[in-house]
Amino acid sequence: MKQLQEKIMQDGKVLSDEVLKVDTFLNHQIDPELMKAIGEEFAERFKDSGVTKVLTIESSGIAPAMMTGLMLAVPVIFARKRKSLTMTDNLLTASVHSYTKNETNEISVSKDFLEKGDKVLLIDDFLANGQVVLGLQDIIEQAEADLVGVGIVIEKGFQPGGTTIREKSIRVESLAIIESLQNGQVKFKEEGTAL
Amino acid sequence: MKQLQEKIMQDGKVLSDEVLKVDTFLNHQIDPELMKAIGEEFAERFKDSGVTKVLTIESSGIAPAMMTGLMLAVPVIFARKRKSLTMTDNLLTASVHSYTKNETNEISVSKDFLEKGDKVLLIDDFLANGQVVLGLQDIIEQAEADLVGVGIVIEKGFQPGGTTIREKSIRVESLAIIESLQNGQVKFKEEGTAL
């Protein structure tokens, strides 16, 4: 997605060979017009998948997921990393390990919102090791719903998540795939080329 | 806002005299069309305030804040409850006490995104004791920006936050004000009547 790549080039900061900071438009400050364009793009790519629910995880996934849900006219659910006051015991849960933080967290979704037969589109801001996607997939399976695909705003193509998930025959649509962050430079994988 | 009141009556669950569960459309599952209508309503109410930034806090404030920012064509910032990997030491912080959880948390916003002279509209899902609004106001003052108003989706009119904030001459626009939750019934304050 050209508009997103340009925004990354313009505003993204390479903090190390593995870390790209995009908090000017995606995960601290949000650019609403860009989120709308991202939602339109995901909706276009998954328009024939019969999506009934968009699922994401708090917090940075919420903005792109909500715009996607708006464009597809379906509800959006965000998984919780911490239980909220009004979340009772009617939960689907999975464990997600974060390699960057070196901690394992339980994520949860109320059983009320994922049903057998739901066709679920996962949306997240980043794909790195794929642990969040695998955790959400686990929750979708517990609900006997179907995962129809994964929409990622920025995929770190030099980390294993994309390969792990595609090897499970899950459709992954990443709007920007970063091939490397070496020497402080963002290098994109061109669309249509193999990783 | 009639559409919101109807949604609360239809889908809200009164868990106690103080707790209303609205996780079918606001803070776990999100109704994107309703969020769009909420964003339009806030934008209409604050259209003459010269808003340059919308500020909220993760996670449940993000959806209504983003739709408001989209309608006003300004960036949205969400304060963090936990520091993220890429948040370095360039932060504005404030302490926020949660009476419901009986814990005090530090919230933070990067100095990069709030500037002197910014006209900031705060958006949040709930107003109860007002501690989040006061914490965000503290951060806005640290940045030497101006708080032009507060937009709340659901105000608990029987808790003191609304009074506390209005007494500081801050404009508060709540789309639904709940007068009481007694006997399992949601009772709204009618618009235009004093609390």
From TrEMBL, chains A, B:
Native organism: Sporosarcina highlanderae
Binding-site residues for 5-phospho-alpha-D-ribose 1-diphosphate, renumbered to this chain: 128-132
Pathway: Purine metabolism; XMP biosynthesis via salvage pathway; XMP from xanthine: step 1/1
Entry EC number(s): 2.4.2.22
Residues passing through the membrane, by range: 61-79
CDD domains from the UniProt entry: PRTases_typeI
Record carries keyword Ubl conjugation: no
Protein name, as recorded: Xanthine phosphoribosyltransferase
Function in brief: Converts the preformed base xanthine, a product of nucleic acid breakdown, to xanthosine 5'-monophosphate (XMP), so it can be reused for RNA or DNA synthesis.
GO MF annotations in UniProt: xanthine phosphoribosyltransferase activity
Catalytic activity: XMP + diphosphate = xanthine + 5-phospho-alpha-D-ribose 1-diphosphate
HAMAP family, sorted: XPRTase
InterPro entries for this protein: PRTase-like, PRTase_dom, Pur/Pyrimidine_PRTase, Xanthine_PRibTrfase
All residue ranges annotated as the Phosphoribosyltransferase domain in the record: 32-157
Entry-linked PANTHER family: HYPOXANTHINE/GUANINE PHOSPHORIBOSYLTRANSFERASE (PTHR43864), XANTHINE PHOSPHORIBOSYLTRANSFERASE (PTHR43864:SF1)
Pfam families, per database record: Pribosyltran (PF00156)
Cytoplasm as UniProt keyword: yes
Top-level EC class: transferase
Subunit details: Homodimer.
Subcellular location: Cytoplasm
Lineage: Bacteria, Bacillati, Bacillota, Bacilli, Bacillales
